[in-house]
Amino acid sequence: MISRIDLRGDTLPEGGALRDLLPRAEFDVEAALEKVRPICEDVHHRGTAALIEYAERFDGVRLERVRVPAEALKEALEQLGPQVRAALEESIRRARTVHRAQRRTAHTTQVVPGGSVTEKWVPVDRVGLYAPGGRSVYPSSVIMNVVPAQEAGVGSIALASPPQADFGGLPHPTILAACALLGVDEVYAVGGAQAVAMFAYGTTGPDGCAPANMVTGPGNVWVAAAKRYFTGRIGIDTEAGPTEIAVLADDTADPVHVAADLISQAEHDPLAAAVLVTDSLALAEAVEKELEPQVAATKHIEDRIKPALAGRQSAIVLVDSLEDGLKVVDAYGAEHLEIQTADAAAVADRVRNAGAIFVGPWAPVSLGDYCAGSNHVLPTGGCACHSSGLSVQSFLRGIHIVDYTRDALAEVTHHVVTLAEAEDLPAHGAALKARFEWKVPNA
What is the pLDDT at residue 174? Predict the structure, then answer.
């Protein structure tokens, strides 16, 4: 059901050589880019008419309008089951608690007497958020996108989610109910690359969508490709690929827990990655045995879980020691990394590359997906070595404010002039000389 990669017995290679030995899903954004380019440009030129046409082609629904009416949001919340509502409200409460604490405040550094630099943090003006709606429904992704944007102070928030034939062309009602709970009333029944194009270019007319400064949220390869296409025109969070879990475990780990956690990510998608890294052959064998009955007892077996576990992106990686295991998980840079070892907190503290780290047996990835308070929009495909998950900071821009007096500028002018001349940019130095009793050279 899941393959093994045996890295025992030899010195582990460094850097890219080690990464190349590890499992990873094929996710060709570059190939998808050529297919989404004409879709994006069609939305640019035809606006809402193109969005309606693509909804019929890709989602199997004929829309009369793409913006979700306010009454549909209200009705979705009224019809939401009380238990689901309570769970969403608790998820929102915990996410707000964590993300509110991330908000940065302006800080002034007095560089010299009379000379200061202040860094202030300003939210982007408008964001377009994407909530997937393919194999599963993700109201949790609505929360994970909306809460940090709101806590950052973003003034204008719009959300898009694919239209669903089963719900009259509206996004899934639980998506709509989550939007209503969060106070997001600008919602569009638009999916895929065309949703990103709508946010990037904007559309006009009764259902018009104003252009956004930034687009965030997970999606399929077409959404990722559209984000790449528009990078530079808009800000993005990340080109999210298939979800992944890595578990670093030793012989203290419970194989029942480990198997359950691997399956929990495998049920997302046939390309989802489930990786166990361990120095315990006994644990590896126990997890392999445990997978069989747990998979048989769950849902989405043939279309998602079995293909995901059997795919090239999933494996049990055997290493000689926990030290080698740390090298492997740092090279892998998992979206979600569980540490199920003795003294798990100390081991977790040594990890450098991961989207989010889950410490010990009582902090499974599923907790982070819904109710830990952390954000589940995280870097995939090894991007955790250079990128962070979605947070309040994602929606803020740091702006430096430079404030110098005449005396403070005069004191440093000779250094500025020297450096300007060293770079053969004499006009830079002349801009300072002009403020004092010096003549501009050759004037």
Answer: 96
| Per-residue DSSP letter, 67 | B
Distance in angstroms (rounded) separating the CA atoms of residues 259 and 287: 6
- The number of CA neighbours under 13 Å toward the Cβ of 107 is 6
Q: Which residues are catalytic?
A: 335-336
CA 125 – CA 212 distance, rounded (Å): 8
Helices assigned H by DSSP within 136-254: 139-152, 173-182, 192-201, 221-230
Beta-carbon count within 10 A of 153 CB: 14
Alpha-carbon distance 132 to 134, whole Å?
Answer: 6
**pTM for this model (two decimals):** 0.93
N-to-C CA span, the chain:
80
pLDDT tens column, 380-433: 999 999 999 999 999 999 999 999 999 999 999 999 999 999 999 999 999 999
The DSSP element (H or E) to which 18 belongs, if any, is helix 15-19
Pick from 99, 146, 104: nearest CA to 127: 146
CA-only gyration radius of the chain, Å: 26
Pure H helices in 56-170:
70-78, 82-100, 139-152
Among residues 88, 108, 107, 209, which one has the least CA distance to residue 156?
A: 209
Beta bridge partners of 129: 159, 216
pLDDT tens-place string over residues 5-52: 999 998 999 888 999 999 998 878 988 999 999 999 999 999 999 999
Residue located via tokens 């410490």: 359
At residue 277, the 3 state secondary structure works out as strand
What residue type is assigned to position 293 of the chain? Answer: P
